[in-house]
Amino acid sequence: MVERFVDGRARARRRAGIVDAMAPATTGKLGDGTVRRIGYGAMQLAGPGVFGPPADPDRAVAVLRRAVDLGVDHIDTSDYYGPFVVNELIAKALRPYPEHLVIVTKVGARRDAEGQWLPALSPDDLRSAVHDNLGRLGLDRLDVVNLRVMEEGSLEESFTALAELREQGLIAQLGVSNVTADQLAQARAIAPVACVQNMYNVATREDDPLVDLTAAEGIAYVPFFPLGGFQPLDAQVLHTVAERHGATDRQVALAWLLRRSPNILLIPGTSSPEHLEQNLAVGDLVLSAEDVAELDGLAGS
Known about the structure:
This protein has a single domain (8-294), classed as NADP-dependent oxidoreductase domain (TIM Barrel). It is 39% helix and 15% strand.
């Protein structure tokens, strides 16, 4: 059984109806389908710096299998994690894939021999990346492919190339990552957009208008670095709210995102079975209006 990390008094208050916040919905829309709002991001299964193999590949495989056993039906990955390492681990751990599992991948970047992240946005680059993802994941069709944009400017040529692959049946749905509102509009003029994957968390709030826009348009918003990324979130208010609920700081930061907007889907990443279970328990943590007001003060601080 997953340990819930939520204070028993908070659970008792909810059972008695003594709450000032509704529990967030447990599922959300992802394009044409529905997934649980707490998924799994596989990036951390690669080696340090998301480069090379993990120190313990068997542990990585076990984390993936545990995630699916606990009900995860949305896994985020990319062939440039490693590169190639993470997709190969996913295939090893999970094939044949459960029918309900949605695997979302990204294209638009590549890694050099030193592990640097370089753009790979030409139509030829993107076609090659899609076929590489298909091959390493062992799929005939990719559920969702995000175009990872690495700079401002037009994405018309790149997104058109992916839309053509979608028409060929190699991709079911398309998304965009690291985009502005203008770039999202460009993409939507070419093909339907199932999701936006941008940097966003309780302290990094520049995308607030885009979260609201995507919610109004029925587009999933999937924050990357929901816990701060390579510089993890650390603030007294997180500690304070966490102590109030008998939770962890990480859980509070994730719970804030679930409360922020119903179109937000989470893909927290970890290579630890313990952290995986903590992340998946976040759905039981119901923040009060007071909690949210305190946490909102982190924006821009």
